[in-house]
From TrEMBL, chains A, B:
Pfam families: MarR
Keywords assigned by UniProt, alphabetized: DNA-binding
Identification of the protein by name: HTH marR-type domain-containing protein
Phylogenetic classification of the source organism: Bacteria, Bacillati, Bacillota, Bacilli, Bacillales
SMART domains: HTH_MARR
DNA sequence: GTGATATAGTTCAATAATGAAACTGTATCA
DNA sequence: TGATACAGTTTCATTATTGAACTATATCAC
């Protein structure tokens, strides 16, 4: 790939990413049920995927400090969506879990997001959509690997 | 496209987007010169692209309220990167522009981001990268159109 | 065993982004 | 000229975030 082409691709990628992210952010913000912020939804979604997890996992996953997680989780506990439960063996560890209300909330949000994305993905041919996702996943993997390497 | 395939694509897209955005965010945060936040960089970049612009343009572009822009611009003015200049004819309007330092800062950031993206895009064949970008741009257009329609 | 050290999570203070509502000044229009 | 529209700011409350100090608990080396 010659330098000029690369430069153009970078420019186009920057623009497209910025635009898609901005749109997604606005759409999510507007359609997210009941004053859930996007960060809060991310935390709920992660806990759901793990059933049980601790603050440190979340901090690693969200790429923020543990004190940021404490703040978000406290708000979710106040809303009755998440519970805290100390571990029996190692009392330093506090397990986080979704309350029944929390589970219901995640299901609602997932459905709303699914409907929205289905609308967009529906615009594309299956072949184009598949190719796109595959490249996107490769990019995600390359970036994650790079990030991991940088942390060492 | 059948429902099952669609559901899988949505799941994969959600994951990939989340992962790429998180990585980009961390990488930008760490490599961005001199305590510039990503929002601040977005504002600088937009002003650069327009030479002159006002708060309202920026609010529209960033999809936030005008008071959020006032706050960000004030911080950038304090840092000496942006200037404010009232319009001669319509004194309600205040033009924003980059100071020489602001221009230098944007150039530095663009170079840093370009180097980073070049590293990632370099992993792909030209054909794959081109196809990806094209689909991404289509997606951006569809989303922007939808958003525009929703605002009406 | 006991003291040093590591770990999990919280608290606190500061900075930033944001929305909403009230407000200031200016322009426009009937 | 008076009502209205518009551009931008101010103020206030909420949320997210970092980083440092801190608490409580576990582990490890001697």
């Amino acid at each position: 790939m010659d330098g000029n082409m690369l430069e153009q691709l970078i420019e186009r990628y920057e623009m497209a990413t910025f635009s898609v992210n901005r749109s997604l952010h606005v759409i999510l913000r507007d359609r997210m049920p009941a004053q859930l912020t996007i960060e809060q939804y991310g935390v709920l979604r992660y806990i759901e995927s793990r059933q049980l997890c601790h603050s440190s996992d979340l901090a690693e996953f969200m790429c923020v400090g543990k004190s940021a997680i404490t703040a978000i989780v406290t708000r979710l506990v106040d809303k009755g969506l998440v519970g805290r439960k100390p571990d029996d063996r190692d009392r330093r560890i506090i397990w986080l879990y979704l309350t029944p209300e929390g589970k219901r909330m995640v299901a609602d949000c997932k459905a709303a997001i699914g409907r929205m994305l289905a609308g967009y993905i529906g615009y594309f041919e299956e072949k184009e959509a598949l190719g796109f996702i595959e490249t996107y996943e490769k990019l995600a993997a390359v970036m994650a690997e790079d990030e991991r390497r940088n942390r060492e």
